[in-house]
Design goal:
globular, disordered C terminus, 3 strands, three-stranded antiparallel β-sheet, mainly alpha
């Protein structure tokens, strides 16, 4: 075990630890009066790091054997949420277990990546390219439908984004993929009238945010002000009018990026983006050195999920993406999202530990 731990990618590990530290410092700075949120996140961080190290030591191929069970588990827990879920901000997406409240959709994202990694690896040659796309799309759409019923449009978009990214990376002919994108847009237009008014409001509010600064555009407007207040060097840790005086809503979850930039400025934003870039560079290297296509698709799926989360979260903080409640990996407050990203990151570490010595082996096969 010690030998395997010493074989960790410590550059990748250090990048994750630094992002976790940034998130904890941000939470401590905006909840100086009552640090219950900080201490809970610190607890989640400790648990998550422990799981990360454990998953980095075991053989990731064990997940291949249970990938189908992960899929049916995802469907089961999403159905349970619809019947017994707790409503928060208009979305029935949480389960109250008494001692902790969890958001199952974050776990579902992890399960879906594992399932799709095995499915694409196993079925691409057996079923053919087009059949693989169609069947995987149908299977993902069952999960997407259950998520939309909560309703959680943001997570549904992430789920479809993971599928699209993994199918694209698998090397399937792009004309098939392009056709499915067009088909998906048509389905979205057809189903638009049936979306809950809250979900419609988030989209329409994005296009009209400048006209309703006290209503649908309030969150984004305050976030943009906070980012502008940061300037080059920021207001300093524990300072900043928008975050400290509670003008900025959801300053510890959806808009924690704006909170950090207000206190650390442009330099802080570049530091965070630089850490994410470092992690993506390591993702690419780990995927290329994977010993098999299952590991390659696993890492590719994680890379896709992280990219979507970062793009949407930072985009909505800057007013260029609709507000969808997507957390910033490793930084936003929330036990379910934090532990889930550390779980999937630990599996990526395991792919690295059990890598092939010859880089690019898998890539040349696909």
């Amino acid at each position: 075990m010690l030998k395997k731990f010493l074989n960790f990618d410590f550059i990748y590990f250090a990048g994750i630890l630094l992002l976790l530290a940034v998130g904890l410092i941000a939470l401590y700075s905006v909840f100086s009066d009552s640090n219950s949120i900080f201490w809970r996140q610190l607890l989640f961080t400790g648990i998550g790091i422990g799981i990360f190290i454990f998953l980095g030591l075991i053989d990731y191929s064990i997940f291949r054997s249970y990938s189908t069970w992960f899929y049916f588990f995802s469907i089961g827990i999403l159905i349970i949420v619809l019947f017994f879920g707790k409503e928060v901000s208009g979305t029935v997406g949480w389960l109250d277990l008494g001692f902790v409240v969890i958001q199952p959709v974050e776990i579902v994202k992890v399960c879906l990546i594992i399932f799709l990694a095995h499915f694409i690896e196993d079925k691409r040659i057996v079923l053919g390219e087009l059949t693989t796309i169609v069947s995987s799309f149908i299977l993902v759409s069952i999960i997407g439908f259950l998520i939309l019923k909560q309703p959680d449009l943001g997570s549904a978009l992430v789920v479809y984004g993971i599928w699209l990214g993994m199918i694209f990376i698998s090397g399937i002919r792009k004309r098939y993929l392009f056709s499915f994108i067009i088909f998906g847009i048509m389905i979205l237009l057809i189903t638009w009238p049936f979306l809950p008014s809250q979900q419609q409001g988030r989209i329409t509010g994005f296009f009209n945010q400048s006209e309703d600064l006290q209503g649908s555009g309030y969150h984004v407007n305050q976030s943009i002000i906070a980012i502008g207040n940061g300037g080059l060097n920021g207001q300093g840790i524990g300072y900043g009018s928008q975050s400290q005086l509670n003008f900025l809503p959801e300053k510890h979850t959806d808009f924690i990026f704006a909170t950090i930039v207000e206190t650390t400025g442009f330099i802080g934003a570049i530091f965070i983006l630089g850490l994410f870039l470092l992690i993506f560079i390591r993702f690419r290297s780990i995927a290329q050195s994977s010993r098999d296509s299952f590991g390659y698709f696993l890492v590719s799926g994680v890379m896709t999920m992280f990219f979507i989360h970062i793009l949407i979260n930072i985009g909505m903080n800057m007013g260029v993406m609709p507000v969808t409640g997507i957390p910033l990996p490793f930084i936003s407050y929330g036990g379910s999202s934090l532990i889930s990203v550390l779980i999937i990151s630990g599996i990526v570490m395991n792919v690295y530990v059990r890598r092939e010595s010859t880089l690019g082996k898998v890539v040349t096969d696909y």
